[in-house]
Structures are given as C-alpha cells and as structure tokens.
Amino acid sequence: MEIEALEELAAREAIRQQLHNYCRAMDRRDDPLGYAVWHDDGTADYGPGIFQGRGRDFVDQVSRNHLRRLAHSHQIATVGIEVAGDRAASEAYVTVRLVSAAGDGFTEELYAGRYLDRWSRRDGRWAVDHRVWVLDFGELDRPVTGHLPGGGSRDTADPSYALFRDLRD
Hints:
By secondary structure, this protein is an alpha+beta fold. The radius of gyration is 17 Å and the shape is globular. The protein contains four helices and six strands. A six-stranded mixed β-sheet has the order 2-1-6-5-4-3. The protein has helices spanning about 5-30, 30-35, 55-65, 160-169; strands at about 40-45, 50-55, 70-85, 85-100, 105-120, 125-145.
C-alpha cells in the first residue's frame, strides 16, 4: 500500500477517534478531553441563540447544561471524511438524548442532526478548526417511562475510565 494511502487512513482514524472523544467528553463531562477535540482557536456554530464561539467555550457551556440533566447520551454514526494533506472535512450524523426530572417522572429531549467539521493537523494532532451543527429534527419535553440506568457515572468515575487506565498500566 502506498505511503499516502496509509497516511490518509491514519488521518481518518485520528478524526474518527476525535469524534468519539467528543461524545465521551460530553457524556462523562470530561472537559479536558472535550477541549482536546478543538484547536485552541477552533470555533463552533450551533446556531444563533444556542452557541457561536470558541469550541472550548462550547464544552464549558455543555458541561454546565448537563449538570441539570439526569442522563445524557451522544451517538455518532455514518461518518464521511475527506482528507487533503493536513486538512480534512467530515460530516457525522449525530443523535443526542437528554433526560431530565419532571414532577414524578422524566422528560426527554431528542435531537438528530449532523456535525459538519473542518479539521487540520497541527504539530501532528488532528483537531476541529470549525464546526457547524445542522439540526435535522428534534423533540422537546417528551414524557418517558422507565427508570434511570445504573452502574455508570456521568464523570470520570465511570467504569470505562478504569477499563482504559488498566490497559495502559
């Protein structure tokens, strides 16, 4: 296989890992991991009235917002990535579920959309230069039945952190 093809595969995998890191950072409220997804001057545009500004500031806003949630889950599927040297673009389909307390029960917000990201590799690290959130549809304050999950944690005390830490030790 050509070196260029291997470099492109490595770039695609680094970008996919960063997309995964973003979801993990949001769901575990792991701000340092979230900051690392963006370049220091990277920006996010989630639309007027939601957020427009630095990616780092968006991570802070989401982390504060998730404090009032009982559960949250971000999933990414169908990722398309184009690489051109040290630059790339990606489109990632996203589903976000947010659960909040409501009286004696729960309500859920469900969002489906896409992250349209511009990436660059600087000093060997791929990170977001600019993200645009495209909301394809959403449902707000939908009553949900069931119970809250157990065994997980919405921070770095989640058992998954021990799993990966044990692998490194």
